[in-house]
Amino acid sequence: xxxxxxxxxxxxxxxxxxxxxxxxxxxxxxxxxxxxxxxxxxxxxxxxxxxxxxxxxxxxxxxxxxxxxxxxxxxxxxxxxxxxxxxxxxxxxxxxxxxxxxxxxxxxxxxxxxxxxxxxxxxxxxxxxxxxxxxxxxxxxxxxxxxxxxxxxxxxxxxxxxxxxxxxxxxxxxxxxxxxxxxxxxxxxxxxxxxxxxxxxxxxx
Length: 205
What we know:
By secondary structure, the protein is of the alpha+beta class. The protein has 2 domains: 4-95 and 179-200, no CATH class; 102-163, DNA Binding (I), subunit A (Orthogonal Bundle). Helices cover 22% and strands 19% of the residues. The longest helix is centred in the N-terminal third of the chain and has 10 residues, at 4-13. The model is unreliable at 1-8 and 196-205 (pLDDT under 50).
């Protein structure tokens, strides 16, 4: 059985680190363990968010963790936890298209009925085609919304106008980048590299 110290080290190494490309654009989120490996192998540098200074591993290892700062415990010393790294060669951007699937649809609509605004249990939410498939409606971001079972039954095989039911918002493809969607800790220093528009956007998820 692992002791408490081993569990803490494991948790720290699984903590997220923001990855920037060579142009300092966010392209991924890696674990601390992966980030350290990239820096150790000279594929990346650690970014100090306070002053944007770059560090290779030898320079970073000389820095002492500050009071109340997370650290990685090695055999004989402690190392600061990198929050942001920048890749030395990669300059492309990832595909930011959000996959159209049940999971992302639930997240876009915030697990909320788009007709009455209720947030029932997941098993009481259904996917409604705004324009019914029998009327030529497609399964797409622009034509699918969450609806509680009561509203879905009430709307039946009709459009919202025909059923006299108004949508809370116009359905559309989410504007957020799926690469950064994680059920994880949000790191405050990342705000310097990811625009406020990202954090404050209507994630509809």
